[in-house]
Amino acid sequence: MVLKKWFGSLLLLLVVMFSNAVGAYLGINIGTDVSNMPSASDVVAILKANQITHVRLYDADAHMLKALANSGIEVMVGITNGEVLGIGESPAAAAAWINKNVASYVPSTNITAIAVGNEVLTSIPNAAAVLVPAMNYLHKALVSSNLNFQVKVSTPQSMDVIPKPFPPSTATFSSTWNSTIYQLLQFLKNTNSYYMLNAYPYHGYTTGNGIFPIDYALFRPLPSVKQIVDPNTLSHYNSMFDAMVDATYYAIDTFNISGIPIIVTETGWPWLGGANEPDATVENAETFNNNLIRRVLNDSGPPSQPTIPINTYIYELFNEDKKAGPLSKRNWGVFFTNGTAVYTLGLSTSNRITGNSSVTFCAAKQNADSAKLQEGLNWACGQGGANCTPIQQGHPCYLPNTYQNHASYAYNDYYQKMHSTGGTCDFDGTATTTTVDPSYGSCIFTGSSNSSTSGGIFPPVAFGPISPQGGSSSLSFETSKAQSLLSSAFLALILL
């Protein structure tokens, strides 16, 4: 048995060896239950501006697939739940779907995976009998088109198919789905595909009746007396995310099938909720996703599979405000539809990912009052002596054309020049220091470790402006859809 488990682990390592060589990646989901959904070309512009290299679509929208052509972005296309039954009952329907939605777009559009439905077993259980047949028919159609090595077929499932995910070492799939799960795993192994998992620590925490601390759900360090330990393996779990992934590995292992890596197709945290959803906050969403980025990009796996990275797709690009249900369900988006970021996330360089504490920046606070931001911006660009040319129209930091973005640049420029002589990063409570570099594209923010105090004589200033006044700024803040598509602070979701 020991030899068998060792050999299984070796197979799994070989399956993902190439992925290990280039590093783990993060992608993002693009839902479309959105009012004022941007055009496909505008969506791709947002993706490119933020160096997002992997996306998951919930359907095979022709406009999006055409817009993604020649972008280099890897695309996971989706078969909707409504399509699963028809494809699972007809090889001809599967072949027609592949020809229409995959073969006609590659290689210009870099389609690399097909997600067959979404949480089919728990959302449309009557389709369980045809789920794996649908996957087989699609795979055979890919073989006929000579695309089976480029495009993998799988199906995302929720954690609900594992009734008791903790402790991970004893996790098993619900017996209700034993036959289907076994067929699914055999298919994934035979086609060198991967298990798609939707894992939400937010739901695990909010429905857990206080069993686990919120820090555990947010990837925050736990004190030694509160460490989460599997009593059977003595493995320590630093996050609920890792425990969910590991529970799935252990559940797969109960079928004595090995060599199937897990990819997390959905995870995230809502940033706004109703009165009975106190944990859906901007602060928690920002904390979760920043820590998720650091976790995924360290290229390691959960305790049972430490060498297997956890490639992950964040849920989601935009708020899907047309969805029914609680308020939190409509507020998972990382961007607003005009392309500006809901909150700041880690960027691409190692300093940005790790939050190098030796480099400090000054940035406007999320959700700061716009009137106060305008006052602070006027003060920084006027009496404060900040160089505000880069945020003028036509210059590198003009877009996105928002008070938040422009104030951040002006505040930081003032702070870097004046902090050594007493200048502060406060601006009537609208600013804060951060070790996350706000730079994006060609808009570069100077950090405190490499800033220079030379280069000009500035008028006397009140170093810690409590109520910024004076100094009228000539900046224009008119609304422009085209000019607001590029966003200022998001992660570079790239291969390391």
UniProtKB/TrEMBL annotation:
Keyword annotations of the record: Disulfide bond, Glycosidase, Hydrolase, Signal
| Record EC number | 3.2.1.39
In Pfam terms, one family for this protein is: X8
- Uppermost EC category: hydrolase
The reaction(s) catalysed by this protein are:
Hydrolysis of (1->3)-beta-D-glucosidic linkages in (1->3)-beta-D-glucans
Q: What InterPro entries does the entry give?
A: GH (IPR017853), Glyco_hydro_17 (IPR000490), Glyco_hydro_17_plant (IPR044965), X8 (IPR012946)
* Superkingdom of this protein's organism: Eukaryota
Query: For this UniProt entry, which residues form the secretion signal?
Result: 1-21
Where in this chain does the record put each X8 domain? Answer: 360-445
Question: SUPFAM superfamilies of this UniProt entry?
Answer: (Trans)glycosidases
As for family, the record states: Belongs to the glycosyl hydrolase 17 family.
Q: Any idea what this protein is called? A: glucan endo-1,3-beta-D-glucosidase
Q: Which organism is it from?
A: Hevea brasiliensis
